[in-house]
Design a protein that fits this description.
A 3-stranded mixed sheet has the order 1-3-2. Strands 4-5 form a two-stranded parallel ribbon. By secondary structure, the chain is mainly alpha-helical. Keywords: Membrane, Transmembrane, Transmembrane helix.
Length: about 575
């Protein structure tokens, strides 16, 4: 008997002893259970086969196949498919993709306050929970300085609190469906989170209307918090659905105490107006954001087009509604190439200018009013760390949201192509297009070039396709090539330009001097009568040739005759001497 068979036999004997020792106890405790013999038999059989290795390869293969079939059937459950199809159209608050998060993780995670379920309960953000409770008490606790009786105010605010709680409970399912990842919070915790976070946002917006600098708010709010709060409340993962905030804003409208300054009557865009006013410093310097909200697309005020604050701000700055949304929308088309850098366009005669009254993304390319070349008009932009965070979250939202024009992504790729070095940043700053507070142009160029890292451009629906196409066509034209060649080789700097101008001036003076010399020599020739007559005689050259030929013949004859004396030439014999003809 082999060693393996001995081990198997010993295991079987041990299992039989164990089962025989426990069988009386099982029979006594479960005698009333009719199914015990069957269950007991299954347990024994399964244990025997597992320990003894009695299952055949075919049975194990069939069992694995059956298990795989059951798992696949669980994936194809109709109720799961129906739930996914119903929620996919309502999702608007996403977790940022890992490829984008790895570039700059801090740009997508809140710094001081958590809103919504994604970062709820994070240890580093719990300090701001006190601030949320302060705003909650201001809405639903009586103010003892109120002129009304405290009991009356208390009853009134308790009634409002009850209405708010019931409204949040009704909106819980709809709010959960807005998040791309399922929340593990219970129903009670989720509703409480909606109440505290929503009341904090509503109170913060109302305080920003009454006291923009937050100078007289409770001591727990400090001015250093404002930039961080604006950053956190605009991040994609840190959002509450806008319909939740609208409901809270409407229900808590009547709960403001008498000492508070009254706010304008509730309108369909009042919450949006306060939010845009609060977030306006994120794009400070754009006059297009100062227009009244009525210039905002009416459908986005009356309906539920904007899903949350980031979507609201995205819709506000998009070219669809930043300038004249009611009249026309920008044309879109395929853009296969990017624009050239600032230095290259500058060499080709492109002038850069800015228009503070246009929208943040409105870019145009036109002829110069005076002179040759073209003008590229870009709205002014201020680059800092806060602006980079805003742009990164907008790009992430455009990449995740369905049926969303990727205008911010297109705009950032436009800037990325324009700016390749610190010199490009310096030129844009010189023309008033770009301002920054990062300390050096090199840091600005690096920040702009990293905004589109791990992001694919939208080449099929670009709103800048015509601008980029016109610029590239102008750069490839004959005028653009000639001007670019001259600037690159002869006017690359002011020293090279001065040298080129000096060389051209010297060449010009040399040509003038040569012309003057030729004119003077011609005048001298005309004054010499004898030489002039010789030059004017048509047979002059012929007579010279004949005289030379005859002289050579005469000298040759004298040489052959052996005469050693030179015979004087008779001037009368020189009938061909040219001077006889003068």
């Amino acid at each position: 008997m082999g060693k393996g068979n001995l081990i198997v036999a010993s295991r079987c004997i041990l299992l039989q002893k164990i089962t025989s020792s426990f069988r009386p106890r099982f029979n006594e405790s479960l005698a009333s259970t009719t199914s015990f013999p069957t269950l007991h038999g299954k347990i024994l059989a399964r244990g025997f086969h597992e320990v003894c290795g009695g299952s055949s390869p075919n049975s194990r293969k069939a069992s694995a196949s059956q298990s795989l079939t059951e798992e696949l059937e669980d994936i194809l459950k109709p109720e799961d498919i129906a739930r996914e199809s119903s929620t996919s159209s309502t999702i608007c608050i996403y977790k940022v993709p890992n490829t984008m998060r790895q570039v700059n993780r801090k740009a997508y995670e809140p710094k001081i306050v958590s809103i919504g379920p994604y970062h709820h309960g994070v240890e580093s953000l719990k300090e701001m929970e006190k601030l949320k409770r302060v705003y909650f008490r201001r809405l639903f606790q009586p103010n003892y300085n109120d002129q009304l009786h405290d009991d009356v105010v208390l009853v009134k605010k308790k009634a409002v609190l009850g209405d708010v709680r019931k409204a949040m409970e009704k909106l819980e399912a709809a709010a959960r469906s807005c998040y791309s990842e399922e929340s593990k919070l219970s129903s009670k915790e989720f509703v409480k989170m909606m109440l505290l976070d929503g009341c904090f946002i509503i109170g913060l917006l109302r305080d920003s209307v009454l006291q923009p600098d937050f100078e007289h708010t409770p001591s727990i709010i400090q001015r250093w918090m404002l930039p961080n709060l604006r950053q956190d409340l605009i991040k994609l993962e840190n959002q509450l659905p806008l319909f939740v905030l609208r409901k809270l804003f409407q229900l808590t409208k009547a709960s403001t105490t008498c000492h508070e300054q009254p706010i304008a009557s509730t309108t369909c865009w009042e919450l949006e107006a306060q939010a845009l006013r609060f977030f306006k410093p994120l794009l400070e310097g754009h006059a297009g954001l100062n227009k009244p909200l009525q210039h905002f697309a009416p459908k986005q005020c009356q309906g539920s087009s904007s899903k949350h604050f980031l979507d609201l701000f995205h819709n506000r700055i998009s070219p669809d509604c930043s300038t004249c949304p009611v009249l026309q929308a920008p044309r879109r088309g395929e853009q296969t190439k990017q624009i050239l850098s600032v230095q290259e366009l500058k060499k080709a005669g492109v002038k850069f200018t800015t228009d503070a009254n246009s929208g943040p993304l409105d870019i145009s390319f036109s002829h110069r009013a005076w002179g040759w070349g073209k003008v590229l008009t870009i709205p002014p932009i201020h680059i800092d760390d806060h602006r980079g965070t805003l742009f990164r979250n907008m790009v992430a939202f455009e990449k995740c949201q369905r049926y969303c024009h990727q205008d911010v992504t297109t705009y950032l790729f436009f800037l990325d192509s324009l700016i390749n070095s610190a010199k490009d940043v310096g030129l844009l700053h010189y023309h008033g297009v770009l301002h920054h507070s990062l300390g050096s142009n090199r840091r600005v160029a690096k920040l702009v070039n990293n905004l589109c890292k791990e992001v694919a451009p939208d080449v099929s629906q670009s709103y800048l396709y015509k601008v980029v196409g016109d610029v590239n066509e102008y750069y490839s034209s004959k005028y653009g090539k000639i001007r670019g060649f001259l600037v690159h080789h002869h006017f690359s700097s002011w020293l090279v330009g001065i040298s080129t101008i000096g060389a051209c001036l010297a060449l010009y003076l040399t040509l003038i001097q040569t012309g003057c010399g030729v004119a003077s020599a011609r005048k001298d020739l005309e004054n010499d009568i004898s030489l002039a007559s010789l030059l004017k005689e048509p047979l002059f050259l012929k007579n010279i040739f004949e005289y030379t030929r005859k002289s050579l013949s005469r000298f040759k004859a004298m040489y052959h005759s052996g005469s050693t004396e030179n015979k004087a030439l008779d001037p009368n014999d020189m009938e061909y001497w040219p001077y006889n003809m003068i």
